[in-house]
UniProtKB/TrEMBL annotation:
Alphabetized GO MF terms: metal ion binding; peptide deformylase activity
UniProt remark on cofactor binding: Binds 1 Fe(2+) ion.
Catalytic residues as annotated in Swiss-Prot or TrEMBL: 132
Gene it is expressed from: def
Cofactor(s) demanded: Fe(2+)
The protein, known as: Peptide deformylase
Function: Removes the formyl group from the N-terminal Met of newly synthesized proteins. Requires at least a dipeptide for an efficient rate of reaction. N-terminal L-methionine is a prerequisite for activity but the enzyme has broad specificity at other positions.
UniProt organism field: Saccharomonospora marina XMU15
């Protein structure tokens, strides 16, 4: 089991658009294994490759008994119905803010054999699929907050010892 070190808000890798996975070899399998091992820690629902410093389009999830990964994911469906749900992020620890998300989401991508896969869900799973896909597009959930909440989040983040500056 390999538990990878997390990258935190302020690290440039979290704001970059991740590159597509083009090699389906042992190195990609190791990445997927690391993503799955790292998301297995208690209190974790999803983990995108940039959060462990790898700028590739891959994420893992572990939500309500459903565990897996998606390579080259893209959101293909979001419900029109949304809700405000409290959201946090492993790369922005200890900060939780109400965030508007679609109640249902569908993601399509591929597996390690480059075969198509589809993952869908409602509630927390929908939130996870949206959140992790955002990471691959260089977005943090903080980018989705209202301007007032974002201002508060930025102030709080800068006061944390994990805030990454260089």
């Amino acid at each position: 089991m390999v538990m990878r070190e997390l990258r935190y808000f302020g690290d440039p890798v979290l704001k970059a658009v991740a590159e597509p996975v083009t090699r389906f070899d042992d190195s990609t399998k190791r990445l997927v294994d690391d993503l799955l091992d790292t998301v297995d820690a208690p209190g974790r629902a999803g983990l995108a490759a940039p959060q462990i410093g790898v700028s590739l389009r891959a994420f893992s999830y572990n939500v309500e008994g459903s565990r897996g990964y998606v390579l080259n994911p893209r959101i293909v469906e979001l419900s029109e119905e949304t809700h405000e749900i409290t959201e946090g992020c492993l790369s922005v620890p200890q900060l939780w803010f109400p965030t508007v998300r679609a109640k249902r989401a569908v993601v399509r991508g591929v597996d390690l054999r480059n075969e198509p896969i589809t993952v869908s869900g409602e509630g927390v799973m929908a939130q996870c699929l949206q959140h992790e896909t955002d990471h691959l597009d260089g977005m943090l959930y903080l980018d989705r907050l209202t301007s007032e909440r974002r201002r508060d989040a930025m102030r709080e983040a800068r006061q944390r010892d994990w805030f990454w500056t260089r």
